Amino acid sequence: MFRSLQDSPHLLEVVYRTVYRMLLPFRRWLIPGSWIERAFVELEHISKGAIFDCRMCGQCILHDTGMTCPMTCPKNLRNGPCGGVLPNGHCEIYPERHCVWVQAWERSKRMPVYGQDFLQIQPPLNHQLHGTSAWINDLHRQPQMVPPGWEE
């Protein structure tokens, strides 16, 4: 039921921008490792789990990937399809499923604000952030989310 929201990527990008702007004034209280982060982790697990099948990587890039979680790719690819996409747009590992990256591409085209971000290469995951709040990490842990050599 909630997963169908992914098919409204523009609505989700508006929600993302709104929530981010609402959190910014509270940044100094949204501290990594605090009780607030534990509350955020629970909220993210429930909400993003229901909508995006979130894997709680702690480094959410939904707004860069057409509001489609790349961690749901069976190969955990963070930068596009593996080359094994079937002619019908389905996954080579699970032929009954659509390829996550085909969905991400299609959805990103319907996102006027973040749609072009789909073309950016994403840095590898910092697995130490697994299970932490992506919102709080985005506000405080940018250096830990981008490995050396990936800075702009």
Task: List its salient traits.
152 residues, mainly alpha, 5 helices, globular
Any overview of this molecule?
The chain has one domain (2-145). The longest helix has 18 residues, at 35-52. The chain is an all-alpha fold. It has helices at 9-23, 35-52, 100-108, 134-140, 142-145. It is globular and about 50 Å long. The protein starts with 8 loop residues before the first helix and ends in a 7-residue tail after the last helix.
Put the structure in a nutshell:
The protein has helices at residues 9-23, 35-52, 100-108, 134-140, 142-145. With 152 residues, the chain is mainly alpha-helical. It has one domain.
SSE blueprint and pairings:
Layout: H1 9-23, H2 35-52, H3 100-108, H4 134-140, H5 142-145
Order of SSEs, N→C? HHHHH
Strand fraction: under 5%
What is the 3D form?
Answer: globular
* Amino- and carboxy-terminal Cα gap: 39 Å
